[in-house]
């Protein structure tokens, strides 16, 4: 019984130390993509962007910034909850979020909420942005109000995005070109490789986990019988 337990323990350790890491990387990506699909469904696809288009957008931004695609996908999921942001401004808004995050040293979730709220309700959003140091000129404020008066939300949003681009435009791409940025980008690429390998191994690991669980249950029952006999 002890020999069997040692073999099972060794098997568990090997899975956790090697293959388990690959499957964990894939599971993280899979979770992000599932959440994105659910956000699209729950918002009735109000953004007018498909799941595939969003994934390609995330992959493209990972290639030119230091942000991993799974982190960008999570930001996209959160952005979709601001249903006034549609495909006309969504890509530019997303890159603005990356720029603001890198410029201000804050995480994507915080930046997404800040900018998402501002774009979802541009008139109220101007005041919210001012509180974090992003100020629009009087001309820009009047332009936003005029566009909103005729229900041209997208044009009002573009005024805000243009100001964000004036203050922070290109920041995320510039960080990517630094030495530290290159190392992070390399890590992201390696992470993508692990995800693909993990995806291939996931069915095998699921089956193996089930087998090991069955073996453990059998050995536990055998051990209990031996203890009862003694």
Secondary-structure blueprint of this entry?
Blueprint: H1 2-42, H2 51-64, H3 69-80, H4 90-104, H5 108-120, H6 122-130, H7 138-149, H8 153-168, H9 171-176, H10 179-229
Helix pairs in contact: 1-3, 1-10, 2-3, 3-5, 4-5, 4-8, 5-6, 7-8
What does this structure look like?
By secondary structure, this protein is mainly α. Helices cover 82% and strands 0% of the residues. The model has no long low-confidence stretch (mean pLDDT 85).
Quaternary state of the chains: single chain
Strand content: under 5%
Terminal Cα span: 14 Å
Task: Report on the biggest sheet.
Answer: none
Which blocks of ≥5 consecutive residues have pLDDT under 50?
A: none
Mean pLDDT over all positions: 85
- Principal-axis shape: elongated
Percent helix among the residues? Answer: over 70%
Please work out how many helical segments DSSP would assign.
10
- Give the C-alpha Rg: 24 Å
Helix/strand/pairing category: mainly alpha
Features:
about 230 residues, mainly alpha, 10 helices, about 80% helix
């Amino acid at each position: 019984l002890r020999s069997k337990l040692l073999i099972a323990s060794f098997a568990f350790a090997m899975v956790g130390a090697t293959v388990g890491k690959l499957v964990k990387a894939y599971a993280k990506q899979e979770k992000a993509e599932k959440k994105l699909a659910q956000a699209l469904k729950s918002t009735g696809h109000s953004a007018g962007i498909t799941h595939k288009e969003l994934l390609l957008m995330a992959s493209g931004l990972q290639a030119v910034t230091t942000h991993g695609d799974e982190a960008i996908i999570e930001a996209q999921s959160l952005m979709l909850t601001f249903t006034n942001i549609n495909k006309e401004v969504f890509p530019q808004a997303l890159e603005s979020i990356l720029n603001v995050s890198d410029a201000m040293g804050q995480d994507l979730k915080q930046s997404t909420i800040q900018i998402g709220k501002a774009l979802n309700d541009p008139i109220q959003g101007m005041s919210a942005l001012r509180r974090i140091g992003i100020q629009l000129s009087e001309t820009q404020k009047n332009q936003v109000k005029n566009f909103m008066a005729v229900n041209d939300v997208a044009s009002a949003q573009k005024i805000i995005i243009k100001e964000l681009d004036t203050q922070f435009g290109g920041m995320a791409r510039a960080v990517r070109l630094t030495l530290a940025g290159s190392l992070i980008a390399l890590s992201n690429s390696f992470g993508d490789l692990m995800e693909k390998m993990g995806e291939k191994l996931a069915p095998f690991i699921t089956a193996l986990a089930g087998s090991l669980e069955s073996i453990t249950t059998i050995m536990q029952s055998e051990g209990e019988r031996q203890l009862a006999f003694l």
